[in-house]
Design a protein that fits this description.
Elements: E1 3-6, H1 9-20, E2 28-32, H2 39-49, E3 64-68, E4 72-77, H3 84-89, H4 92-96, E5 101-105, E6 118-125, E7 133-140, H5 142-158
Parallel strand pairs: 2-5, 2-6, 4-5
Antiparallel strand pairs: 1-7, 3-4, 6-7
The structure holds adenosine-5'-diphosphate and magnesium ion (MG).
């Protein structure tokens, strides 16, 4: 998959905003990367793109934040979960297979609970500079192959 490089937090949010324009009810987007990689920045961009106003923060302690925009957004952060069982207790299936868009930070921690079809986004710091990030979108399933391709196209077009 092609790498999307960003050079500022705003640019990463911009990738999220472009992604939002492509989203449909039921889409699941998984965000992976170290602490401070930019998962929440990207999520904030998605929220903005969905027309959600007001602050969007990492649901590190609340685990799930729900927002109402053009689509319902479930923003989940499983960083503090001790076990996938806890995630199941939260009724995650309801989010994953519902009509909203679900974003999951640290999704790889609950891999076995994720739907087979989803977009896995990996964000990592680049050795090129403090504010440089490399974003890779790995699609799982036909719908997400399309999504990843379209995202790459619109991001490229904006360069
Ligand atoms: P995470 O949710 O992955 O822990 P955050 O999005 O909360 O990360 O934080 C990312 C941090 O990195 C912020 O402080 C942001 O300002 C900074 N940053 C610097 N450059 C970038 C970039 N290109 N993309 C995203 N964040 C960046
Ligand atoms: Mg975060």
């Amino acid at each position: 998959m092609p790498v999307i490089k960003t050079f500022s937090p705003e640019e990463t949010a911009g990738v999220g905003e472009k992604l939002a324009a492509l989203l449909r009810p039921g889409d699941v987007i998984c965000l992976n990367g170290d602490l401070g990689a930019g998962k929440t920045r990207l999520a904030q961009g998605v929220a903005r793109g969905l027309g959600i106003e007001g602050p969007v923060t990492s649901p590190t302690f609340t685990l799930i934040n729900e927002y109402q925009g053009g689509l319902t957004l479930y923003h989940i952060d499983v960083y503090r979960l001790d076990s996938p069982a806890e995630m199941e207790d939260l009724g995650c299936a309801e989010y994953f297979y519902g009509e909203g868009v679900t974003l999951v930070e640290w999704a790889d921690k609950v891999k076995d609970l994720l739907p087979g079809e989803r977009l896995d986004i990996y964000i990592k710091r680049s050795p090129e500079g403090e504010d440089v990030r490399e974003i890779i979108a790995v699609p799982r399933g036909e719908r997400y192959r399309y999504l990843a391709e379209e995202l790459t196209k619109v991001v490229r077009a904006g360069d």
